[in-house]
Structures are given as C-alpha cells and as structure tokens.
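COMPLEX REQUEST
Ligand: flavin-adenine dinucleotide
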Amino acid sequence: MSRPEQQSSTSANRACVDAVIVGGGIAGIWLLNLLRRKGYSVVLLESTRLGEQQTLASQGMIHGGMKYALAGRLSRASETISGMPERWADCLAGRGPVDLRGLQPLCERYHMFADASTLGQLASFFASRALRGRIRKLKQEDYPQPLATPAFNGVVYELQDFVLDTRRLLEALLEPVRQCAYQWHLSADDISARSDGVTLTLGETEVDAGHLILTAGAGNQALLDALGIDDPVMQLRPLNQVLVRHAHPYPLYAHCLTGIRRPEPRLTITSHPDGDGWIWYLGGQLATDGAMMGDGALIDHAMAELKVCLPWLKWADAEFSTLRVDRAEPAQSRGQRPDEAYASARGPCIVAWPTKLSLAPDMGDKVLALLPPPAANPLISLGIPTAELGRAPWNH
Ligand SMILES: Cc1cc2nc3c(=O)[nH]c(=O)nc-3n(C[C@H](O)[C@H](O)[C@H](O)COP(=O)(O)OP(=O)(O)OC[C@H]3O[C@@H](n4cnc5c(N)ncnc54)[C@H](O)[C@@H]3O)c2cc1C
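STATUS: Structure written out below.
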C-alpha cells in the first residue's frame, strides 16, 4: 500500500466498519496500517494530535533489551524483547508486517560506555557466549565522535539497537492511511454497546463497529471505566526527561554506565537534529529519579551528571529544559515494568498497550490474533476532521 486510498462517504450518516481504533500513538497508528494491509475496514480516533503523548516524547530506541540485563544475567524482559530490532529491520527492508521502506534510522547502532573502573563482572558477562551477536566491544578507532578523545579512559560497546525519528516513523505509517485517522475525543456518551459490537455517535455520524480497539495510552483507563470493564487496570510510571541544547557538533546515541549502582543506565542519550546542531535528550536513571525532583533540581542534577559522565565536553553554556511524561501500561505487581506487549479482549473491546515502542510488532501480532477475519465492509469517510500529526518535544 504505497498510495493513499480512495474512500466513499457514508450513506444516511450511518457507517459500518470492522473496527474503530481509539488513540493515535504508535499503538493505534501501527494497528491502523497493519489492519488496512490485512483488508480490515478500520478508522482511528485521536483526541488531540497524533503521537503527541508518549510516542513523540519517546527516545525512539528500537532495542533488544540489553539495558534490562545490567544485573549481569538475562531476564524474561530482556529475552522477550530481544527479537524486536530484527523485526523492525525487516519492516525497514519491506519484509515486515508494515512497510517502512524509505525510513532512515537516526542511528544504525546504539552504544553503551563506561569508565575503566565500573564494569567488573559485567565485562565478562558482556563477553559471554549467551550475548554473542547482541553486544560487541569496540576498538578505539570505532568510537563515536563524542567518546573519541584521549580524555576518555573507558570501554565502548556496540549494541544491535537502533534509533528512529518517531515523527518520521508515524509519518511513514500514516502515509497510506492518513484519511482514516480522525480527530475526535471519544467519551462515554459516544458509546452504546450492541450484542455484536458497539455503536459510536460521532457528531452527525453513527458508526457500527464490530470491535472497539483501545490504544489510548494513559486514556485507556477512562475508556475502560466508561465501558464498565474493571480488568485490566492501568499503571502509570512517571519520567522527567532532560533536553540539552549545547555547542558540541556531534550526536551521541549511548547508554552511560559509568559508576552505576543499580541495573539501569545512568544516562540514556539520544540526539535529535536542531537547526545546524543537535539536542541531546536524556533518559535512564536521570529521568526515573527526576520524576521525584523539582525541575530546577533536576536540571542541576543533569548538569552534574554530564560533568561526571562526559567531563571533557563543555557544559557551561548548555541550555536545559525538562519534560514530564508518564508511561502507561497494564498494572503489574508492585508497579514493575511489564515484560511484553499487552492485548486482551473483553466482549467487542480489545485493550492494548505496547508498553514499549520497540514492542509494537508484538502488540500487532497479539491484536490480530484476537480479531476474526475482515467482514468486507467498505472504507468510509466519517465527515469529521482528520487528525494532524503532533510535534516532538525538541520542536516545541
Ligand atoms: C520519555 C519516554 C521515552 C521512551 N523511550 C522509549 C524508547 O526509546 N524505546 C521504546 O521502545 N519505548 C520507549 N518509550 C515507551 C513508548 O514510548 C510507549 O510505550 C509508546 O509510545 C506508547 O504508545 P501508545 O500508542 O500506547 O500511547 P501514546 O503515544 O500515549 O498514544 C495514546 C494516544 O491516545 C490518545 N487518546 C487518549 N484518550 C483518548 C480518547 N478518549 N479518545 C481519542 N484519543 C485518545 C492520546 O491523545 C494519545 O495520542 C518511552 C516512553 C517515554 C514516556
């Protein structure tokens, strides 16, 4: 599907579709593209602007879970996600469930670095057979530019992970299905249950849908409440990310492990084009701990962390800002991170959280497994405005 599709308009303001998707982040937009490719008649409703909640705030890393193995052993979380870089690489090559040919990653290989004194036992684990093909120690001449200095006395690893520009990713997924994504905030008053599906009242149009697919991220809980569904329940895990505009002319895509005391990268760094330069976007422990800090305190902490992790770069004139955003997921015991994507059916409703951008293909498989074959309904136009794509935080 490379060209936008033609639609007919609804007759007598009543339309029939296989499914309505609620929420236009990566989950909803991935499914819109995937289900159209499979021949389903499907439309998407987005409250505000497509992607502007978690998806465009994400760091865009398509990762294979090495950062979940920093306790020195493989875990269920690191294993479930380990196949995702390859599945996304298939999509970039045009062999996957969605076609992302033409989408150029921001970086082809993510790095991990630490000063000479940190790794200890972890260094043997990284060199072990269990991790062969997933991590490779680099020679000094292959270090990324910001680490290629005699002032850095440490180790650098290359992972199989890569980084996508999430806005370009959403653009690529939307391109063939753009006119099926509408701007509408779905609320309880719009929904009536039927024995074989739901009817949605969207302005002047009534839409009969065989399935209602909830991919509204943090908005899923309100929709579950509106539908009287008390299981699953959602959890939110907060982050406070840091954006740094600075004079260093090169990007960096790397986890910093220098001095880590718990199994989480101290800094997770991605870089995003900003005029002639780059904005570095910082997550990892910094953003997890930052969720409990005031923004001013977090900026002081970020400056101090950069001076410890990358002391040879100049930070005095850097400009800092922060971004609070919650990760929305199915609730886990003790609020832990889920290991995989989630999708389950409750009558005609399917609720899904990818739980990670990287796990979108896993979520797509799970939703497809819950749907009957397409019912050959025609594609329709709803007569409400289509949704616009949002902006990434560094473009605000
Ligand atoms: C700071 C941060 C960094 C991250 N970095 C990474 C990373 O590098 N790699 C990775 O794999 N994962 C990462 N993640 C996780 C990943 O971003 C999320 O798992 C993913 O984006 C969730 O997508 P989603 O579509 O479920 O939710 P969202 O992107 O939040 O989309 C939900 C959409 O639903 C809409 N909506 C809500 N209620 C309604 C309603 N009633 N009607 C209509 N629309 C509604 C919202 O407006 C929103 O657009 C990161 C997350 C965060 C917060």
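REMARKS: The chain has a mean pLDDT of 94. DSSP finds ten helices and 20 strands in the chain.
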